[in-house]
C-alpha cells in the first residue's frame, strides 16, 4: 500500500496557503509526522488529503485517485481525526463511534454496537461509552475521536494533533496504537508539535513552513539545529541520550 500526494494547492479567498506541495511517497508500515510552526499549513494539508476542503493536486491511494472515489469508499479507506471534536453533541460517546462506523459500512445494529465497543475497549475507554460526549474532558474526547477515526479500519489514517490534550500515559498509548496500526499495513500521517514525541515515534518527519515542504527525512536528518532555526526561529540543541534517543532542547528564540 502506498500513498502519493502531489501538487496540493489550497487557497482561502485570494490567499494561497499551500503552494503545489508534494510529499515523498508514503508506504504502509510508516508513521509520518507533519511538523512546523503555527499557521504553516499542516491542518490544511491533512484536510485536503482527506478531501474535506477544495484543493488542486492529487492524493492517490494505491493508484486510485481519492477525489474520484465514491464518498462511501473513501470513508472506508481514509480515517481522519480532527484537531478537536465539535461541541454541542447530544449523543453519548458510543453513539458517535457507531455513527463514524456507519459512514463507511452498512451493518446490523448489534454488529455495529459490538464493533464500536471493541474499538473503545482496545483504546482503554470502554468505561466512557455511555457518557454524553459533551460531558467528557478534553483528553477523553480526544481518545473518543481516535476511536471514531479508526473504527472503519481505514488504510490511510490522518490525525491532527492527536496527543495535544493527552496525559503522558495516554500519549504513549495513542502513539503505540498508531505504530501498531501502521505495522499492520496502514499509512499513518499525524501532525505533532511535540518534537520529542516526533523524534521517538516517527519514521519520517516532514517540516512544513510557509505552505511548502522545507525539509523531510528521518528524525535525525530533520531535527537539526540549523533546520529548527530556519523553520521555528529558535536556538536548539539536539543530543542523543544514553539509550540512543534523540533529544531536542530549545534554549531560546533567535
Ligand atoms: N477555513 C479557512 N479560511 C481562511 N483561512 C484559513 C482557513 N483555514 C486555515 N486558514 C489559514 O491557513 C493558514 C494555515 O492554517 P493551518 O490551520 O493549516 O495551519 P497549521 O500549520 O495547522 O497551524 P497550527 O499549528 O496553528 O494548528 C493559516 O494562516 C490560517 O489562518
Automatic annotation (TrEMBL):
Keyword Nucleotide-binding listed: yes
This protein's record includes keyword ATP-binding: yes
Name of one Pfam family that matches: ABC_tran
Top-rank taxon, per record: Bacteria
Keyword field: ATP-binding, Nucleotide-binding
InterPro entries per record: AAA+_ATPase, ABC_transporter-like_ATP-bd, ABC_transporter-like_CS, P-loop_NTPase
Domain ABC transporter: 3-235
MF-aspect GO terms: ATP binding; ATP hydrolysis activity
Protein name, per record: ATP-binding cassette domain-containing protein
Amino acid at each position: 500500500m502506498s500513498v502519493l500526494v502531489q501538487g496540493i494547492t489550497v487557497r482561502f479567498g485570494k490567499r494561497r496557503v499551500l503552494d503545489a506541495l508534494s510529499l515523498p511517497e508514503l508506504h504502509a508500515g510508516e508513521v509520518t509526522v507533519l511538523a512546523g510552526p503555527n499557521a504553516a499549513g499542516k491542518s490544511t494539508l491533512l484536510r485536503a488529503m482527506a478531501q474535506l476542503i477544495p484543493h488542486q493536486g492529487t492524493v492517490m491511494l494505491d493508484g486510485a485517485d481519492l477525489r474520484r472515489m465514491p464518498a462511501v469508499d473513501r470513508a472506508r479507506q481514509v480515517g481522519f481525526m480532527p484537531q478537536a471534536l465539535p461541541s454541542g453533541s447530544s449523543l453519548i460517546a458510543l453513539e458517535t463511534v457507531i455513527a463514524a462506523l456507519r459512514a463507511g459500512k452498512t451493518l446490523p445494529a448489534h454488529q455495529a454496537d459490538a464493533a464500536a465497543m471493541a474499538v473503545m475497549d482496545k483504546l482503554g475507554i470502554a468505561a466512557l461509552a455511555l457518557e454524553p460526549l459533551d460531558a467528557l474532558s478534553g483528553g477523553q474526547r480526544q481518545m473518543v475521536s481516535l476511536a471514531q477515526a479508526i473504527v472503519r479500519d481505514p488504510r490511510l489514517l490522518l490525525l491532527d494533533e492527536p496527543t495535544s490534550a493527552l496525559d503522558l500515559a495516554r500519549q504513549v498509548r495513542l502513539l503505540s496504537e498508531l505504530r501498531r496500526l501502521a505495522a499492520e499495513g496502514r499509512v499513518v500521517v499525524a501532525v505533532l508539535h511535540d518534537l520529542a514525541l516526533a523524534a521517538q515515534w516517527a519514521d519520517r518527519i516532514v517540516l512544513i513552513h510557509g505552505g511548502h515542504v522545507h525539509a523531510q527525512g528521518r528524525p535525525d536528518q530533520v531535527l537539526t539545529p540549523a533546520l529548527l532555526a530556519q523553520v521555528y526561529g529558535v536556538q536548539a540543541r539536539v543530543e542523543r541520550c544514553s539509550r540512543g534517543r534523540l533529544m531536542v532542547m530549545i534554549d531560546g528564540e533567535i
